[in-house]
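re the bet — no i am not wrong, look at it urself. input seq straight from the record:
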Amino acid sequence: MQRLVIPVNESVAAAWQEAGPEQRARIISLFCWLVEKEEWKNFTPASFSALLDKISDKAYANGLTEEILDKY
């Protein structure tokens, strides 16, 4: 795997610093998927909302419910 350095705002940098290894791995996986599948090219508020709905549906199908998320 190669390293990539991207500029981010202070709140993103702070959130990254606070994230644990598992959370960082998830963020990296999501970022890689967005870039590899070129999902970012057609982002609009509506398409982003639809993408979040897909992710939510997949998470729910895999047993990740709102009740579980509310614990964190």
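see?? Residues 65 and 71 are 10 Å apart (CA to CA). told u. also The two ends are 30 Å apart (CA to CA). so pay up
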